Amino acid sequence: MTTVASAQTDIPATAWHHRHLIDLDVVSWPEIDLIMRTTDEMKGILARPIRKVPALNGRRVTTLFYEASTRTRVSFETAARNLSADVVSVAPATSSVTKGESLVDTVRTLEALGAEILVMRHSVSGAPYLAAEVFGGHVLNGGDGWHAHPTQALLDLYTMRENLPGGDLRGRKVAIVGDILHSRVARSNIWSLTAAGADLWLCGPATLLRGMDRWATAWSGGAIPGHGRFNVTSDIEAALHDADVVMGLRIQRERMQGGLLPSLREYAARFQLNAERVSLAKPGAIVMHPGPMNEGVEIAPDVAISGRSVITDQVANGVAVRMALLYLLAGAHEAAHGETPL
Amino acid sequence: MTGDEIRRAIVRISHEIVEKQAGTQGLALVGIQRRGVPLAKRVADAIEEHEGVRVPVGALDITFYRDDLSLVAQQPIVKGTDLPFDLSGATVVLVDDVLYTGRTIRCAMDALIDFGRPRAIRLAVLIDRGHRELPIRADHVGKNVPTSREEIVKVHVAEIDGADEVSIARQVRAPDAGTADETGTAGN
């Protein structure tokens, strides 16, 4: 923990040297802070009369989404256009993927067609690592299976910093409630929030926490440098008590085979973020949700639109965070390849 | 240049700016990050001293307008843009420490125009060291300093560096065109 504490005090300017961004496990706290500060500047651009700068003029960004998405895909494409990049959008449902083309062949084809930054979403955990092996440019993970969704975790972190007094997560209690098992959002958030020094609580039915307590126990002795421990519980009251941030996760009905939940009604009765439960949190606590929401299941409609909800802030911040990442990745090219600048 | 010489140059530039504008009406100063920002404030202070009017001062970061993103080994850290006034119809005087290739100024003009339509854009620099790569010239120059491309012009300002000074140094390593920006300083 000492590394976290020292790293967070007046962080010196750091360079971005990651060629790809697939998960936050390899991203250090000073690098996360660089992303946050770059995001500040991007938000400044979004507040201008002309929300566009030429930073990525002529760069080619391709989005390849094998899974349904509105906000993430549109957010990435808006971010790329705000930086003046050229955007190509590939929908596998209407591409040669339906003819049996493999991920590797698709990625090679997109590169041959000029893609420099590939933003991809895939239902198989780890798919972006495979893409990164064959792709000559930069791979940015827009969500893979249950594994990782780094841009969501970063926009969550940014939104928390923006809404918490002092903008500091250290010692702040963050409760993430819902389908942890299937959640790439939760897994990426574990990396960033424990690096930020937050007091992180993951909460849900035992069937949807499977494996998490082992992960938490393995970390509790400070096994991962720069990351604090986190808590796993099925006790919703304990998770929400005095929380600064309450985040609901979607119950992923499409992944609910095999009797993980007795019923959605049962889940809602025990774990739904309703006004009564959220009142256990601190008076100024914020409510978050990565979307899309099942209103009435994991979150009550009145909570989702209450004054505490920063759900629309999350969406707006998503564009700025993705602008920051596209910008940082694009600039990392020469360094990543070890080439001397011209 | 010593601290005194810098001070006199700034006072002279402040007079020139007001003279050219025939007053302070519609005048705004915009410093280019990083050392142009304190210099712009000083020019505004000098104008206030002899005209009794405070002209608006802004800060401009041109990082996202650079055309050499892929050439720099690490991204310049963004330092922030703050233009707390309406540019439309104003005479904007860009202020920077060193005028070199002209590329920073080109970026700055692109950036400014995204914020509004100034009536005119002028340029004031503390040092003009030559070697322009674009058809750009300064309206107000503190000092012309003929240099070779192998030299580095270091401008230090008290607000950032603790003291006011301009010095010329030989570049130690081979010139690195990718990172050589307008100021040409290693420490920028």
Find the structural class of chain A using helix and strand composition.
alpha/beta
Task: Give unreliable regions of chain A as ranges.
Answer: 1-13, 333-342
What is the beta-strand fraction of chain B?
Answer: 15-25%
Task: Provide the helix percentage of chain B.
Answer: 25-40%
Strand order of the largest sheet of chain A: 7-6-5-8-9
Q: Please tally the helical runs of chain B, counting DSSP H or I stretches of 4 or more residues.
A: 4
**At the first level of CATH, what is the class of chain B?**
Alpha Beta
Give a structural overview.
The complex is a heterodimer of chains A (342) and B (188). By secondary structure, chain A is an alpha/beta fold. Chain A is 39% helix and 13% strand. In chain A, the strands form two sheets. A five-stranded parallel β-sheet of chain A has the order 7-6-5-8-9. A four-stranded parallel β-sheet of chain A has the order 2-1-3-4, sandwiched between helices. Mean pLDDT of chain A is 89; it is low at 1-13 and 333-342. The model of chain B is unreliable at 176-188 (pLDDT under 50). In chain B, helix 1 (3-21) crosses helix 2. Chain B has a five-stranded parallel β-sheet. Chain B has 188 residues and is α/β, with parallel strands linked by helices. Chain B is built from four helices and seven strands. Chain B has one domain (3-170): Rossmann fold, CATH 3.40.50.2020. In chain B, 44% of the residues are buried. Helices cover 28% and strands 24% of the residues of chain B. The longest helix of chain B has 19 residues, at 3-21. Chain A binds chain B through residues 13, 15-17, 34, 37-38, 40-41, 44-45, 48-50, 52-57, 83, 327-328, 330-331, 333-335, 341-342, and chain B through 61, 63-67, 69-75, 77-78, 80-81, 110-111, 114-116, 176-179.
What is the element layout, followed by pairings?
The complex is a heterodimer of chains A (342) and B (188).
Chain A: H1 2-7, H2 29-46, E1 60-65, H3 71-82, E2 86-90, H4 103-112, E3 117-122, H5 127-134, E4 138-144, H6 150-163, E5 173-177, H7 184-195, E6 199-203, H8 212-220, E7 230-233, H9 236-240, E8 245-248, H10 264-271, H11 275-278, E9 286-288, H12 301-304, H13 311-331, H14 333-336
Parallel strand pairs in A: 1-2, 1-3, 3-4, 5-6, 5-8, 6-7, 8-9
Helix pairs in contact in A: 2-13, 3-13, 4-5, 6-7, 6-13
Chain B: H1 3-21, E1 27-32, H2 36-51, E2 57-60, E3 91-99, H3 103-115, E4 120-128, E5 140-144, E6 151-156, H4 158-161, E7 165-170
Parallel strand pairs in B: 1-2, 1-3, 3-4, 4-5
Antiparallel strand pairs in B: 6-7
Helix pairs in contact in B: 1-2
